[in-house]
Every structure is written in structure tokens, then in C-alpha cells.
## 1
Amino acid sequence: MLGKLFKYDMKALSRVLVPLHIAAAALALVACVCGFVGFSAGGASTGAAAGFSEAVTVSMLVALAFSVLGVFSATIATIVVIIHRFYKNLFTDEGYLTLTLPVTANQIVLSKVLAGLLWLLVDALVVLGSALAVSLAATGFVNASISDTLPYWMLSAAGGGLFGGSSAWASALSGAVGAATQGTMTLLVAYAAFTLGAVLASRHKVAAGIGLYLAISWAIGLVGTVVNVSVASGLAFGGAGPYASTAATMATTGLSWVGSLCVAATCYVLCVYLLDRKVNLA
């Protein structure tokens, strides 16, 4: 039955997210064209044509920026669509049918988690692939260094400093793991917040869910910051010597991964419990 639930959830999400990511890929193609034209025009900006070439370069850069922004917006839209599907299927009129199916609460939540994570993975591949193509196009397809591409900087920002920057590929890999754990936690926190909002609020359930999500996210961020600062300070003053900075980065990154997964697991259990024992749409 889990397979049928998963198939149904994927079909419902795909009706919206497939066209969305086709549009994102089309914007990425536009960005690639703009980036390559801007690069070519910049290289040819000599002599009497310098003014025209400069104008072309500037206009292409503006178009490139807006196209890339549109591609990155697909991630936010994907998360919103996934959460909307979760809420609509469980806590609106559609929920009356869903909750009467001969399945357990665990199967319902697991199906939605798997479908959501799979679409987040698809979105990440589309966005990172688009960013890589744009990076190469903007440098005339002659830049073969991973450390000079948008995906590398995106993954590094997501936690790619685990290996101290010794290897670009290792940093990208650790960044991918960090992004995966963070994405999993974000999805489960949103599910838990909207489930708890549906239990606590008889009316304005969406507002309650949004408020709870913001409050839980703020609390997680605060606790994470305190823990990271405490660990980093302890290593800095605990005799780690010249390796204190690297040790602190590795420790805080590892704790971030474990903490994200622990929060995600807690939210999953909470969703199953509330859906099984507390949710009442009557």
C-alpha cells in the first residue's frame, strides 16, 4: 500500500513540478545564451565597436542575472508546492478521504516524506546542473576548474569546509551532504509544524502552521548557533594548537549533520503520532 500512496503523491506533485522545472531549464538555457554572448562581446570590445560591445555585455549580464534568479526561485517554489500538497491532502476536505484509507499514519507520512525528498533531489540536480552550465557559458566554455563554478560555491556555502578546503571535490561532496541533511530537516520541520498547527488551531490552521514553522526554525537556529560557538570556543582554547580552526570546522559541520538528522527524525515521529492520535477533521 505504501507503493500506491507514493505513486499517488508523486503523480500529484509532478503535475505542478514537472512544468515548473521545464520552465527552470528553459530559463537556464536563456542564461547560458546570455552568458556566452556577453563573454564573446566582452572579448571583442576593441576599437570603434567598444561602446556597442560594452552595451551588449551589460544587457546580457542583466538578462543573465534575472534568468539565474528565476532558476534559483524554482527551489523555493518546489518546497512551497510540496508543503501545500502535504497540507491539502491531510488537513482540508481531501483529508477526510485520505484518513479513511486502510493504511497506517506511518505509511501516509513516509509516502509524503519520500515523495518530497525525491522532488527536492530532482530540484537540486536541475538547479546545480543549470548553475554549472551557466558558469561554463559565462566563461566561454573554457573553464574546467570546479572551484570556479557556481555549484561549487553553492555547495561550499552549504557546508563544504569539512575537509579544510584541501580538495575542491571533497568540499563539494561535504557541501552536498550538508545540503541534503538541511533539506531533509527543513521538509520534516514544515510537516511537523503544519500537523501541529492543524491539531492546535480549530481555525486559521495555515497561519498557525506558518507561525509554528518560523518559531521552530528560529529555535533550531538559536540552539545550533550556541552549540557551534561553544564547540569552536572549546577547541580554540582547549589546546588544539594550529589545528584548532580545522578541528572546529570539522566538529561543527559534523554536529550540524547529526543535529539536522535528529531534528528530522523527531519531527517525523511527531507527525506520525499526531496524525494517528490527535488529528480530527470533524
## 2
Amino acid sequence: MKIDKRTIDNICRMSDDKLWGAVRLFASSSGVNLSPRCPSPGEMQKLRRTLSSLTDSDISRATEILKTYKGK
């Protein structure tokens, strides 16, 4: 799955449960295991705000970092 600003914006419009599922899916594909329990609404709001502020450059850099750690 290619992650770009448009994808992030679409993900941010999902319900809390679906957003958390998408974050978990992306994280697990990079070797990171997150809790299946959805964080509190306040924490999800913070997550949405953070994701919404990402630029394509931020996303590219994060993807590069995750690829580096995935290889270990």
C-alpha cells in the first residue's frame, strides 16, 4: 500500500475503530505490534491531528525509517 498525503487524509475521515485498524495494519506490515484495543477518543483526536499535519515529505521520510527497521 502506497501511503501519501491523500491516503492519510482519507484515513483520518474514518471512524475511530477503523482508523485504529488502519494504523495497526500499517504498523504490523512494518513489524510493529500495537494493542488491538482502540485508544480513548481524546487520544484518537490527537492521532488525527498529528496525521493531518503530515506533509508528503514527512510521510516519505517515515516510510524510509520504517523500511530500515523492518530489515533488522
